[in-house]
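Bug #77: duplicate submission created two jobs. Keeping one. Sequence:
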Amino acid sequence: MTVVIKVGGARAVDPAGALADVASLTEDGEDVVVVHGGSTKVDETLERLGIEPEYVETPSGVVGRFTDEATMEVFEMAFGHLNTQLVAGLQSEGVDAVGLNGVDGKLLYGPRKSAVRVVEDGKKKIRRGDHSGTIKQVNGGLLESLLSDGYTPVAAPPMAGDDDGEIVPVNTDADRSAAAIAAELDATLVLLTDVEGVYADADDPSTLIESVETADDWDALEDAAKGFMGRKIMAAEEALDGGASEVVVADANADEPILSALEGSGTHMHASAIQEENT
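Kept job's structure:
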């Protein structure tokens, strides 16, 4: 079994338990790929530099970061720091981890989007100067080579953006990066976050949705997924549609967060729900 773990970048997420679980899995002979986010670190660094983080809303209602040139430089710096820290943490756990970003070996590759459609004051506009992209290809061979040699890849954005034939680093969503990697490797994807999973009532943990197996289940899940959770469900759908065997949204701060997620905690989404949804 191959497991792709997405470790969140929120302030409330402590990666220590996840790193210990990665060590346990690799000791048991499982192939593990770690993917991490870092938006909080990017925002903190921007604020220290006196730059206001900017988020925009698309016509479809999705809120995302607008990444201008200065923000892209900070993004590379912050994600590089986080990647090194996670690799060092895994090495301390006895895991032979290797840090990568999406530009390395074109691990994550696709076209750069320099202009994005946004909604400002109720009006649709086009904003230019964005440094973002959509993943179209994953270099699965690079990951498989590392895994077969006993290494644990630790991957993150930025991705390799194709800008009229020139490769430039651009921002891409970390959850969707993990989803693309899980789909490429036909893996189980575990999205760790700061809540126990997806709640039918966002304010009530007792309404945890435990299993999503049918199209009706999926519709209920999408109705329940508000705010940041909506992005995770979008990523989960992409992973399952692309070949991932299962996606779990689970609590990064639980005891043994990855092991408990693989054993049943959190919200488990199955490919059958997507297949039924698409028929």
